UniProtKB/TrEMBL annotation:
Organism of derivation: Buchnera aphidicola
Source organism superkingdom: Bacteria
Protein name: Adenylosuccinate lyase
Family under the similarity heading: Belongs to the lyase 1 family. Adenylosuccinate lyase subfamily.
Assembly, per entry: Homotetramer. Residues from neighboring subunits contribute catalytic and substrate-binding residues to each active site.
Amino acid sequence: MNDGFLLSISPIDGRYHKNTKILKKIFSEYSFLRLRLKIEIKWLQQLSQIEDIHEIPKFDNIINNFLDNLIKNFNYKDALEIKKIEQVTKHDVKAIEYFLRNKIASNISNYKNIIHFIHFSCTSDDINNLAYACMMKKTVFTILVPLWKKILSSIKFFSHDAKRVSILSRTHGQPATPTTLGKIMTNFYYRMKRQLIQLKNIVILGKFNGATGNYNAHIAAYPNVNWHQISQNFVISLGLQWNPYTTQIEPHDYISEIFSCIVRFNTILINFNQDIWGYITLDYFKQKIKNDAIGSSTMPHKVNPIEFEKSEGNLGLANAVMNHMIIKLPISRWQRDLSDSTILRNIGVVIGYSIIAYDATLLGLNKIEINYYNISKDLHNRWQLLAEPIHTVMRRFGIVDSYEQLKQLTRNKNITKNDIHAYIDKLHIPKVEKQKLKKINPNNYIGNSIQLVEKI
């Protein structure tokens, strides 16, 4: 590790840089500059193809290749050059425009007819909103969806592996009707899977319609051009869906929708982490031990569930910031204010915290093993749990006060198998029903748990 990581202010770029380095290709200032340059160039190329605009020449292969290579070969030196221009302009998008103008002027003959159309009729957010939309699309489909699928796959595998492991349930923290460990896992799998489906179906929008969303400048220059259609075609060409009705900015509703979905997924995962942590505390899970690893600086015996704790903490940070973004981003004073700008620049931060958490949960799941003995032991002598099926069958046959009778028999008492069977023998129900009830024990009173896991 070089000292750059040790001097980082944020653990995202410091302690956890290995988890989050993939985000540099999306959310770094360098990547943001490259994306905006790409959009400026693509728009310039689009303009050259419009038949009704005679003042810009139709680009031949030489010019198009030159422009395409500016995107393809964009490097750190180019990014620094843009930042130097920005020190003068005090405007980040204008710096990109001037950078592109300088490149064209230095490399293309008859450039004057081209440079006048760089950033033509654009407002800054025409460029920025499309850049952020491209970032969000890449984040969703190349980072979040694969990671969520990995978590789901791990939980699903665990659920099938543990589908026959009967376990004591706890409602309000108290012993309750048994389930299986596999069914517990399946519950979480189903909840998270719903969020994955919703995330993939959120429409990622882009706008390209000028200073207040009406194509004012476009029409002033070329009133006969169908700018509405050209805007739609241009946005779609970037792999996005078109938002035709905006102010100066794309209103970020879709980003709020994406973050709302991520927050729900993260919240479910917090719940999952806490439950697994609790089962480790109950010794229902054993943690695989690495000889060199240390759980406590003073207590040699300890193996702490730190991955689930680490995940919970980072998910909390991600959700806290995203919840602010969810509320803030769809709001803009009148046609535009700049309060969204610094918020958008922190998208990588919340995704970073989430990635750190996802990796921690996956690592934690790989370190735990089922402690079959302790799970079985805890369930073995819980015969009071059979009060539920017994009084339910009694109700079927019209026995009065069945609930009250079982409450009197079982509450706050050490009930044994013999106590339960003796009570069943005294019931005024058919003999065959008594035999069925006697076949029920704390271990097999699990309803359709196994079948529900198999159906998933």
